[in-house]
Specification:
Blueprint (H helix, E strand, L loop, with lengths): L18 H19 L12 E6 L5 H12 L3 E6 L11 H9 L5 E6 L4 H6 L5 E7 L5 H15 L6 E5 L6 H12 L3 E5 L15 E3 L2 H5 L4 E4 L15 H8 L3 H4 L7 E3 L12 H4 L7 H19 L11
Parallel strand pairs: 1-2, 1-3, 3-4, 5-6, 5-8, 6-7, 8-9
Helix pairs in contact: 1-5, 1-11, 2-11, 5-6, 5-11
This protein binds phosphoric acid mono(formamide)ester.
């Protein structure tokens, strides 16, 4: 049975999803949070199903949480990294996908350094495909877990002001979050140096600030982003020291946000570059650990909804 509230075959991005579809995924994920906190974490919803995590880039959180998510739903989960696969012998992305497709898998989770690679691959296989992050394009499950984390703390997304700070230019996390927060009725501010904000980004329905102090005034949520050195061609910042001075989150800058503003970071963090340890580890304000916990629940929800059309599924979360 297909969930009538979520009709997509793949999850390639947040762009194109409506508020009801996002709410459906968040509601289902909320249920899995409770399951994950219980002693018996395992369900047999996906017994006999196969999930393959195909990662062409490094990952700690996304790969591990998809593995846990699949196993907690009873699926067989296989992890493949480009480093240990025949990609190293010259096999193309498409040939790799066709090879896996011949093994009758049910869900393929893909992370790839090139924007658009996951969509291309989804057109070649029979199973559901989930984008685990493609280049600077999208990271949909990260935006969903961020939204679930915010919704659980603040009780809503609509009407909140969310500041996304740092290397927006190279960030798929920022792109997916902008789409999601806009669709769900939040106001988005982007804060960063001109070199790290895409030109014309205002067209995405956001406010842009190059002065972090002004941008943080009165915000409800602060999302810090990592400087993505691996995607940079050339120098985008004068020095780490100067970057931290102007765009690193510390207690002094945090004081400009609302008194109950929360701090988020998708990880991995570069302490002392974009965020001070004092604020990252602030148990009252930092939601960074909750984000990781919500990541497993959100990925369970995604595996759940994308397999509801398969035979012998009860369709219930
Ligand atoms: N946030 C995130 O995608 O982390 P990983 O690179 O560790 O998966």
């Amino acid at each position: 049975m297909t969930d009538t509230r979520f009709q997509h075959r793949h999850l390639l991005g947040i762009q194109g999803l409506g508020p009801e579809e996002i709410t459906t995924l968040l509601d289902i994920a909320d249920g899995y949070v409770e399951q994950n906190r219980s002693v018996d974490k395992r369900k047999n919803l996906l017994r006999g199903r196969t999930v393959i995590n195909l990662f062409f880039e490094n990952s700690t959180r996304t790969r591990t949480s998809f593995e846990l998510a699949g196993k907690r739903l009873g699926a067989d989960v296989i992890n493949m990294q480009a480093a240990g696969s025949s990609v190293q012998k010259g096999e193309t992305l498409i040939d790799t996908a066709m090879t896996l497709n011949a093994m009758h898998l049910d869900v393929l989770v893909v992370r790839h350094p090139d924007s658009g690679a996951v969509k291309l691959l989804s057109e070649k296989v029979n199973c559901a495909v989930i984008n685990g992050g493609d280049g600077s394009h999208e990271h949909p499950t990260q935006a969903l877990l961020d939204a679930l984390t915010i919704r659980r703390r603040k009780g809503r997304l609509s009407g909140l002001t969310v500041a996304i700070c740092g290397d927006v230019l190279h960030s798929r996390v920022a792109r997916s979050n902008i789409h999601l927060l806009n669709v769900m009725g939040a106001q988005v501010r982007l804060i960063g140096p001109r070199t790290l904000l895409p030109s014309g980004v205002e067209r995405m329905g956001v406010e842009v600030f190059h002065d972090m102090r002004r941008g943080l005034e009165g915000v409800d949520v602060i999302m810090m982003l990592r400087i993505q050195n691996e995607r940079m061609r050339g120098n985008f910042i004068p020095s780490i020291r100067e970057y931290f001075h102007f765009f690193g989150l510390d207690q002094a800058k945090l004081a400009l946000a609302k008194p109950d503003a929360v701090i988020m970071h998708p990880g991995p963090m570069n302490r002392g570059v974009e965020i001070d340890s004092d604020v990252a580890d602030d148990v009252e304000r930092s939601l960074i650990r909750e984000q990781v916990e919500m990541g497993v629940a959100v990925r369970m929800a995604c595996l759940d909804v994308l397999t509801r059309h398969l035979p012998n599924r009860d369709g219930a979360a």
